[in-house]
Amino acid sequence: KASVEALKRFPILNASVDGHDIIYHGYYDIGIAVGSPRGLVVPILRGADRLSFAEIEKAIRQFGQKAKEGTLSYEELQGGTFTISNGGVYGSLLSTPILNPPQSGILGMHKIQERPVAENGQVVIRPMMYLALSYDHRIVDGKDAVQFLVTIKELLEDPSRLLLDL
């Protein structure tokens, strides 16, 4: 949900290059990297903007099961507009996600870990997660990439807006 909202605000990250043209997609078909016995595969969560939290969770769970069983179809692996990879499920603290052409962006999420943080002059322990964004610099400006990441951060820090669909 956070990624879709950020993609709506920064549509260049939901675009792709086709020859000399930039194609802006008016839909949100999000690739979700999942583990299989043969490595990572990226099934597509179609129409992610129209799905509830529960529907997204159920679809990702089904993708994971099908990946383990080797039953994902070719159609389920084609046509994404943006990808999310979560190395955190494998314990990764930070990595550089690899772009999935012709997509212009991929978000890497990592392990949530308690870390010391300065807050109002005090050191407190907070759950923290690193995010990484790889993008096609031919069409995505660094400023937009950083603002996209800041948007994701803000949405994850206050998920009530997404939960209440505000």
Automatic annotation (TrEMBL):
Organism in which the protein naturally occurs: Thiolapillus brandeum
Catalytic reaction annotation: N(6)-[(R)-dihydrolipoyl]-L-lysyl-[protein] + succinyl-CoA = N(6)-[(R)-S(8)-succinyldihydrolipoyl]-L-lysyl-[protein] + CoA
Record has Transferase as a keyword: yes
Keywords: Acyltransferase, Lipoyl, Transferase, Tricarboxylic acid cycle
Enzyme class: transferase
Gene Ontology molecular function: dihydrolipoyllysine-residue succinyltransferase activity
Protein name stated in the entry: Dihydrolipoyllysine-residue succinyltransferase component of 2-oxoglutarate dehydrogenase complex
Pathway: Amino-acid degradation; L-lysine degradation via saccharopine pathway; glutaryl-CoA from L-lysine: step 6/6
A biological process from GO: tricarboxylic acid cycle
